[in-house]
UniProtKB/TrEMBL annotation:
Protein's name in the database: Uncharacterized protein
Organism: Anisodus acutangulus
Superkingdom of origin: Eukaryota
DUF7788 domain ranges (all copies): 155-215
Residue ranges that the Swiss-Prot or TrEMBL entry lists as coiled coil: none
Domain DUF2828: 8-112
Species classification: Eukaryota, Viridiplantae, Streptophyta, Embryophyta, Tracheophyta
Length: 217
């Protein structure tokens, strides 16, 4: 069973590399994403990367004929699997973890991101990162669209608690949720909110971009 799994990944990665070399990135499978990273716990317990690498780069390849011992071959083959297969495919797939760990938010393609990657207030907080503003705007738009598709909270106006007890993160969460609820609401409630405090106020959310809507908060 395990052997068939290794062969499946090897065949899938080989096909993906052919697509990659032809520039057909949108036809790639997710084999590279689910293949364990080299030296990960799964790789060490199953020797999966080595088995997949041996299938992709056999010992009798011209590149390895001059190698005297199998250990040297295994090292060269695993390194080749990482550099020539897994890393290029990860980059082509634009897997979010690759860019988040490298703090390359400007290169992150939202259409491949996990919708649950950030909470509403975390998306707003990421607006302060000069390289993450574009991503934050796209994440917010997607979150609003997802909420609108559910068809709920369309006939209501949210109350935002901005009292003294809500300083810090609680305040950020409150503002973010109210803004989120106000967007898919229908008229006359759309883009409107009321503050909950000693002096309640009625507010109209202005601007088209998230950065504009939050500029007054």
């Amino acid at each position: 069973m395990i052997k068939h799994l290794f062969f499946f990944f090897a065949d899938a990665l080989w096909e993906d590399m052919e697509l990659y070399n032809e520039g057909k990135f949108y036809e790639l499978s997710l084999a590279a994403k689910w293949c364990p990273f080299l030296d990960s716990s799964y790789d060490k317990s199953l020797l999966m990367c080595e088995s997949v690498g041996r299938k992709l780069f056999p010992r009798d390849d011209d590149d390895y004929i001059d190698l005297e011992d199998d250990a040297h071959y295994a090292y060269r083959m695993r390194n080749r699997l990482r550099k020539e297969v897994l890393v290029p495919l990860h980059m082509a797939l634009e897997i979010p973890e690759i860019y988040i760990c490298a703090n390359k938010w400007e290169e992150l393609s939202y259409k491949h991101s996990f919708q649950s990657a950030l909470l509403p207030h975390e998306i707003i907080a990421s607006l302060d990162d000069s390289t993450g503003q574009g991503v934050a705007e796209l994440q917010w738009e997607r979150m609003v669209d997802d909420l609108a598709k559910k068809g709920k909270l369309t006939n209501c106006m949210a109350i935002c608690d901005v009292s003294g007890s809500m300083s810090g993160t609680p305040m950020e969460v409150s503002v973010a949720l109210v803004l989120l609820i106000s967007e898919p609401s229908e008229e006359p409630w759309k883009g409107k909110l009321i503050t909950f405090s000693h002096n309640p106020e009625f507010h109209i959310v202005k601007g088209k971009k998230l950065s504009q809507k939050t500029s007054v908060y």
